[in-house]
Amino acid sequence: MENRIHVIIDARMIDENLHGIARYTYELIKNSVKTGRVYFSLLVNDIKLAEKMFQSVTDIDFIVMKSKFLSLTEQLELPKIVNRYCGKAIFHSPSFVSSPFIKNEMIMTIHDLNHVRLPQFYSPFHKYYYKYIVRYSAKKCNIIFTVSEFSKQEILSWIDLKDEDVIVTYNGIGDRFKVIDDLKQMNQVKIKYNLPEKFLLYVGNLKPHKNVETLIKSMRHVKLDDEIKLVIGGNANDSLMSIIKEYNLENRVRFIGFIDEEDLVELYNMASLFVFPSLYEGFGLPPLEAMSCGCPSIVANTSSLPEVIGDGGIVFEAINDVELAEKIDYLFNDNKKCSEYIDYGINRAKAFTWGKLVEETISQYEKIWASM
């Protein structure tokens, strides 16, 4: 490892579906190693999966843990493993999972306080985990990373920390998210998901706080012709299907099941608009990915979303399905404005790179390393 900083990082959440925290962790590791300044030891559960996911990444090693991600047993195993490197390595939890019993220099990334602000959507286990594990662990950290100014203020209001103890490092967008002209590849994806000629797109999970209900309801007010559909990634649950049936929207809303990560770029490029109505996001990566692919985005005026998309997209009042429909019609009916927002979105998305996040993160590693 020579003069490189040794960081132990929890990578147990990484699998082949790189969403959310898993994406953040994977990109942080992959791009940090390229700098030659950091050596990572990855905590993993499945060594074969880890080797497959990081086969192109050199100069890392794996430490196998028996305890699953977000489990009670990790409170014993995690400190037992990490404390062996006390004074020799920094421990970075890229999620809210940690332990108050860790003795190393420690960093935690808290992406949002979803489990605290919206407890009705999570189990009692999450509530107590945040209260008794996350809170105490965070207070012991050298610094806390988070992904937006919105989340920083949420954290500071929840934990008694100094402003300088919480550092914002915005998520990045992968280089593959861009405007493409490969009609053959797009047509293959179109056939694979049985996509209509023109469609609005939503990508994300279908948890209640994602507010997909409002998006579906907005389709009853949209004045565009019936040929334009709302396409939603995932499979409809009973709650959403009841809304579709109540408002006779069976011909206007289509669920296309699980979307392969490799197909996202083509989907964003083919969609006429991307709509992200979420009520609570620490960052909200999908709208930026869509914007980077030349797909104008409409997002709810909540949490971090206006901060992240800036002037690159359009916002609407989160639970106002009528206003959302008006914004959809507005962009569809004004080709000039739509083109402007495509340009605004592409330029806005360029501000968010994994390289920038990595540089900001390593600079904090270096400060802690120098004090050890």
Automatic annotation (TrEMBL):
Keywords: Transferase. Residues 20-173 form the Glycosyltransferase subfamily 4-like N-terminal domain. GO terms for molecular function: transferase activity. Residues 191-347 form the Glycosyl transferase family domain. Gene3D superfamilies: Glycogen Phosphorylase B. It holds the Pfam family Glyco_transf_4. The keyword Transferase applies. It comes from the Bacteria. This is Glycosyl transferase.
